[in-house]
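4.2 Preliminary Data

To establish feasibility before requesting continued support, the project team ran the inverse folding procedure on a target of 371 residues. The structure was first converted into the token representation described in Section 3, and no sequence information of any kind was made available to the design step. The complete token record follows.
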């Protein structure tokens, strides 16, 4: 897992800047070609050596790290402000539902064409998607041959006042001098910390506390991802509805981010009172579902404060947040040993959620910061 994340950190920071400069279409296309290749090579790499497999996993991370920052370059260009959270919800919903489909379909496909054939099948789907992408998508709606004039006018009228295309990203000194940017960075760090704690270490928690092998439970392979897809879309649509109803962007972002952090934090504290594995599973699924509200919070907030540099800044914050994911993935065992129990570690994570909520509500803004 951490080998994937190290590649992800690097490309997340670089990919956003490349998307801002050369357009999201080209960068996403290159990334899709690369992660499809990595998928195809995985069985071969596993047959060679552990080192080769880890190298392919790093390559996979390099390819996939581009996706979210590139998404942030598309959204300010293709969607007016009051539709962006819904667009994020739909995009992330596809990400989560892809996990559901792959978890459920892989055993069936593997029974017919074997392990290597299954990886080749998914790689071919990647290249099929890539051909559709190259033929039908443009980085900016202005360059699209299929968009209607009325839709283009609607998009352009709904853009923020800043010109969407920038020439030079703000310096790191300027970025780190803005508390509004730190609100997004801290939110990204804690979101990634909590997300990987919930997904990577919950199987260990269930095995330790309830003696249940969660990795063999069908619900763990599908239900949390499906719930995140649905709740992320509902959160995005609700956020956009509030903006269209007259609430300020910053108030909406703070409301959604508060739900996205307080919800999982309370859920983690409630785990100590769960008497059965089923009750604990419901609580954990609720935590993951509520965490998806962050998509309509800090995730969209980068596009609010810096639409011209959304890819670069999202990539930077996502890279920093991924380092937190690595720490929580690799270091959770040490934290549990240091704190004395798994529940103490979950309590620490809940405290981090609550503290980040306060920080975000104090310093976040919906106004243009980088123009």
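Position-by-position output of the design step:
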């Amino acid at each position: 897992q951490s080998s994937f994340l190290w590649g992800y950190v690097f490309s997340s920071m670089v990919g956003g800047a490349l998307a801002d400069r050369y357009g999201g279409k080209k960068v996403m296309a290159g990334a899709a070609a690369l992660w499809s290749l990595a998928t195809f090579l995985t069985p071969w790499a596993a047959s060679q050596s552990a080192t080769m497999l880890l190298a392919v996993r790093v390559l996979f991370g390099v390819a996939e790290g581009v996706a979210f920052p590139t998404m942030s370059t598309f959204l300010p260009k293709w969607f007016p402000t009051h539709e962006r959270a819904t667009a994020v919800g739909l995009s992330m919903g596809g990400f989560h539902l892809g996990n559901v489909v792959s978890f459920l379909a892989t055993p069936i496909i593997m029974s017919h064409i074997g392990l290597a054939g299954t990886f080749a099948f998914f790689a071919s789907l990647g290249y099929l998607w890539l051909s559709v992408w190259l033929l039908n998508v443009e980085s900016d709606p202005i360059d699209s041959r299929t968009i209607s004039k009325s839709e283009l006018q609607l998009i352009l009228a709904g853009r923020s006042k800043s010109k969407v295309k920038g020439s030079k990203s703000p310096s790191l000194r300027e970025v780190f001098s803005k508390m509004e940017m730190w609100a997004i960075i801290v939110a990204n760090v804690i979101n990634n910390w909590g997300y990987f704690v919930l997904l990577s270490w919950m199987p260990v928690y269930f095995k330790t506390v309830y003696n249940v092998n969660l990795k063999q439970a069908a619900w763990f392979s599908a239900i949390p991802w499906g719930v995140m897809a649905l709740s992320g879309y509902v959160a995005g649509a609700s956020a956009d509805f509030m903006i269209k109803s007259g609430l300020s962007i910053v108030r909406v972002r703070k409301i959604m981010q508060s739900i996205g952090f307080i919800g999982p934090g309370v859920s983690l504290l409630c785990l100590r009172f769960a008497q059965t594995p089923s009750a604990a599973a419901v609580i954990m699924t609720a935590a993951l579902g509520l965490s998806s509200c962050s998509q309509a919070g800090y995730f969209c907030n980068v596009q609010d404060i810096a639409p011209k540099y959304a890819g670069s800044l999202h990539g930077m914050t996502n890279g920093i947040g991924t380092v937190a994911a690595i720490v929580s993935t690799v270091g959770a065992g040490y934290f549990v040993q240091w704190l004395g129990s798994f529940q103490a570690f979950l309590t620490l994570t809940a405290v981090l959620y609550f503290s980040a909520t306060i920080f975000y509500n104090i310093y976040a803004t919906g106004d243009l910061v980088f123009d």
